[in-house]
Design brief:
The protein has about 450 residues and is α/β, with parallel strands linked by helices. The two termini are about 25 Å apart. About 45% of the residues lie in helices and about 10% in strands. A seven-stranded mixed beta sheet has the order 1-10-9-8-11-3-2, with helices on both faces. The structure holds pyridoxal-5'-phosphate. Pyridoxal-5'-phosphate binds next to helix 12.
Length: about 450
């Protein structure tokens, strides 16, 4: 990109200032998948597996009985936000992908985390002859199966939400479950896991340390299966299934996505697996018609640091003099997944960073204008559409020849978590957000 507005971005990011970075390595989707040597095969495999297990999940989780065991969230218009941002729709239509409502785990971690536990479960069950591939899986929710699973431990290292997803699912199936948590994980998440019979081990360090500790203990014991947030394919492709379902929801809502009707998606990013898997899937489904942007806290922009470095190097935010301290506990990750960074390099459109005040103001605005109750991490997408109207955003739209097509565009703000947050904690965030929103409403029309 010539005359890219990127040059001041590195300085701004190093100083912990909010910025919008445009990815200079993004290429056409077909070219990118050829270069990556990847197709939609593993996404479809994950989708099929989730379908095979739907009857099991419907039995294990009463909240899933009415939806046939499929863990999915609604896609909805956002009239209140639309009115605040762009009443005449000249910059497109706003929608919310409400993963903060996802059943079972209460966050975007549900699809990936549940998928990985089910993949392990399926392997054990097939090996033990409990079921045949594609047979009646509902017997995996019986005492006989639990007896087998209770001999194994499923372990994970997490800042919180992945731990909830893995711990709740594994414990419900009858596994022993162990969650290694970092110091920034919220107390209520530890309490909730313990109430489900999950063992929580607290570590004094950050997220990366909790993962390393979990990985190490699992390596010594063959009965321990470790879900590796930094490296797992099973998580990644479980997350990607969201794209197939979103495509159905968009079609059902009568929303066209093609080069004349671009789709913009704003995804909060931690280690990269969830937003990366979703981006991978969306690029498979919609190709160059979809434009994915990640949102990261100014104190923990690990994917920005990774993608601004030369291919192969994955520095941490500490290398940039940043401290990884943020209210967005789901995004407080110092170093991005190397694997996800490699996959995002040719696919991702850009990354923006935002400070905690803006996150909390976004949380408030989602409540005030759309009656959505999300956690701080999950509010990060809201600032996206307005940033796209700023100078760096306009540069992108011009370079992609999209400026004249924005009236037909759709913007999806992905709200990634919040359902399980206790009300007292939420009210606290809301009060802080209300104060922050007075000085800087994230989505005012400009
Ligand atoms: C984990 C999480 C994310 C980001 O997912 P990563 O796979 O860590 O990038 C976003 N929002 C919420 C609420 C999360 O819990």
């Amino acid at each position: 990109m010539s005359q890219s507005p990127n040059s001041p971005v590195a300085d701004a990011a190093r100083q912990g200032q909010p910025c919008l970075w445009l990815n200079p390595d993004r290429i056409a989707a077909t070219q990118a998948f050829t270069r990556l040597q990847m197709d939609n095969g593993q996404m479809l495999t994950a989708s099929d597996r989730l379908a095979r297990f739907a009857p099991v999940l419907a039995r294990l989780f009463p909240e899933l009985a009415a939806v046939g065991g499929i863990i999915e969230s609604p896609l909805s218009p956002a009239p209140g936000l639309q009115a605040a941002f762009d009443p005449r729709h000249s910059f497109g239509r706003l929608m919310i992908k409400a993963d903060h409502l996802l059943p079972v785990a209460g966050s975007v971690k549900a699809r990936g985390g549940v998928h990985e536990v089910l993949e392990f479960t399926e392997r054990l069950a097939l090996d033990a002859g409990l079921v045949a591939l594609g047979g009646d899986y509902s017997r995996l929710a019986t005492a006989n199966a639990r007896n087998l699973f209770s001999r194994y431990t499923v372990a994970v290292g997490s800042t919180g939400n992945l731990g909830l997803s893995i711990g709740i699912t594994a414990a419900a199936l009858g596994f022993r479950a162990v969650v290694h948590m970092s110091q920034d994980a919220k107390q209520w998440k530890k309490d909730l896991l313990r109430s489900r019979g999950v063992t929580v081990i607290e570590h004094a360090g950050d997220y990366a340390l909790a993962v390393a500790a979990g990985r190490e203990t699992a390596a010594k014991d063959a009965s321990v299966y470790f879900v590796d947030d930094e490296r797992s394919d099973s998580l990644f492709f479980g997350y990607s299934v969201a794209a197939l379902r979103l495509a159905q929801q968009l079609a059902a809502a009568g929303v066209t996505v093609d080069p004349e009707h671009p789709l913009f998606v704003y995804l909060p990013c931690g280690v990269g697996g969830a937003p990366g898997g979703i981006t991978f899937g969306l690029k498979q489904v919609f190709g160059d018609a979809v434009h994915c942007f990640f949102a990261e806290p100014v104190a923990a922009p690990c994917m920005l640091v990774a993608l601004m470095a030369p291919e192969g190097a994955v520095p941490s935010v500490y290398d940039w003099g940043l401290d990884n301290v943020t209210e967005a506990d789901g995004l407080a990750v110092p170093r991005a997944s190397e694997k996800v960074a490699r996959l995002m390099r040719p696919l991702l459109s850009g990354i923006y960073t935002l400070d905690d005040e803006t996150l909390l103001a976004s949380l408030y605005q989602l409540h005030a204008a759309a009656a959505l109750q999300v956690e701080p991490s999950a509010a990060a997408g809201l600032a996206g559409p307005a940033l796209l109207q700023g100078s760096a955003g306009r540069f992108y739209l011009d370079a992609m020849d999209l400026t004249g097509r924005m009236a037909q565009a759709t913007h999806i703000i992905w709200t990634t978590g919040g359902r399980l947050v206790p009300d007292a904690d939420y009210q606290h965030f809301l009060a802080r957000g209300r104060r922050a929103a007075v000085s800087r409403p994230p989505m005012a029309s400009r």
